[in-house]
């Protein structure tokens, strides 16, 4: 996808933090010198093109309660169905297909470890697949942002 100037500005300015206010898209528009409808339309174009996966917070798991990285070995013909089932949980984020025996990876976050275990058990019961459960032992903070720069 060829990104236009507004898309580049949105990504550069807001990928590490949206305004925390009642009208965040309006605030973003004011910062960028455009209209709220332009911001929303640009974000919709990015999503439709597959260039935007989500808009939302990323929580420090230790403050949220408990989390784990989980994976499933899903038969190729069931991958879409199982991914859709996994994504039904609001506790799930970063649900992605990978080229590996364990080909569906996701992060679960919940109020406590028992909550996480209950969801993993439900998923195993519903799908017939045993989740690989990899709770984080040590946190490493890295910047996952991508600066697009002022090249446009």
From TrEMBL:
> What reaction gets catalysed by this protein?
siroheme + 2 H(+) = 12,18-didecarboxysiroheme + 2 CO2
Self-association and partners: Probably forms a complex composed of NirD, NirL, NirG and NirH. All proteins are required for the total conversion of siroheme to didecarboxysiroheme.
Pathway where it operates: Porphyrin-containing compound metabolism
Q: What class of enzyme is it?
A: lyase
Family, similarity comment? Belongs to the Ahb/Nir family.
What the entry lists under PANTHER family is as follows: SIROHEME DECARBOXYLASE NIRL SUBUNIT, TRANSCRIPTIONAL REGULATOR, ASNC FAMILY
Q: Which InterPro entries match?
A: AsnC_trans_reg2, HTH-Siroheme_Decarb, NirdL-like_HTH
What name appears for this protein in its UniProt entry? Answer: siroheme decarboxylase
Instruction: Respond yes or no to whether keyword Lyase is given for this record.
Output: yes
Function description: Involved in heme d1 biosynthesis. Catalyzes the decarboxylation of siroheme into didecarboxysiroheme.
Q: Please indicate if the UniProt record lists tRNA processing as a keyword.
A: no
Q: What is the lineage of its organism?
A: Bacteria, Pseudomonadati, Pseudomonadota, Gammaproteobacteria, Pseudomonadales
Q: Which UniProt keywords apply?
A: Lyase
Report the EC number(s), separated by commas if there are several.
Answer: 4.1.1.111
Q: Per the database record, which ranges form the Siroheme decarboxylase NirL-like HTH domain? A: 9-50
